[in-house]
């Protein structure tokens, strides 16, 4: 292949942004009448706005061309979702875009994920730009993925970038399908895509404040209560103002206040993250949150660590259960060898969490059938069960898990 060709303009130019019901109705009719798969992408304003809503939706389909839709002006796209029901949707890194598409009424019944296809096919770099260049020989413009897509009106260079993101997605899908078929992996990919399309929406995370960056420094329960109180106060403010929580108060500042337990606004203002740019009223609301946490009775303080479901961290296995540690070591070695043979990342061959769970609590009788049932019970797809069962039977039996 020669030097890659820069892709500078969408084939039909930059389409107008769809921002009213009449224009949306025309798009729905055009896409319903189109043929073949539909390329779908969404742009969010992560780091700028609260939540993960979509601020632009891009689609392209043979016979319909490209459409750019403003989901702020047209917040209900369920009519478009219904028009594309049964059609295969082509997305890149589908699990990132599906939640925000679901919010506006767009839920695929079938999909093809070009990023996941690239992983299964053994590509070393699976970003959209790298894939389009490596597989199709075109260079996509970079540089607008992390902009504030809630900006209105959207600048023309951003719209060009957004339209180009779906320009070659179906071509990429077709090339990857051929490559997966050549490698004997197409059926595996189809099972993976079905699993993504049929997965229920993710449950809200329990105690999301525990994911504050730098939490490992916070040890005492009173300090944990300060993190919780500041995190929840910040979240309410961010939601009300529709800005990213990090723009209201940094994680580092929350942890700093929790460790210091400041007694008044003056002490709080001296901490990193609460400096000269923080107004008196803001300082008072943060200090009030600290004071609320300090006033809690011991019985209302959060427990350290999250309630653990499943096995302990692997580093603790050697002390807690040396036999389980030996099983895990053998299983990991087996999965590594299998992944290398298949030219695929280990986590796509089988989820590391599934391997840990099976090794920590193996079936009472270690044989192919019991291991197959255990893997399927943890959500492994049929192709994974078939490939990984012999590896785990070996690792769970005496011959696979001899301690050195």
From TrEMBL:
Enzyme Commission designation: 3.1.13.5
Disordered: annotated span: 297-316
Gene: rnd
Name this polypeptide is given: Ribonuclease D
InterPro entries: 3'-5'_exonuclease_dom, Exo_C, HRDC-like_sf, HRDC_dom, HRDC_dom_sf, RNase_D-like, RNaseH-like_sf, RNaseH_sf
Gene3D superfamilies: HRDC domain, Ribonuclease H-like superfamily/Ribonuclease H
Keywords of the record: Hydrolase
SMART domains attached to this UniProt entry: 35EXOc, HRDC
GO molecular function, one term: ribonuclease D activity
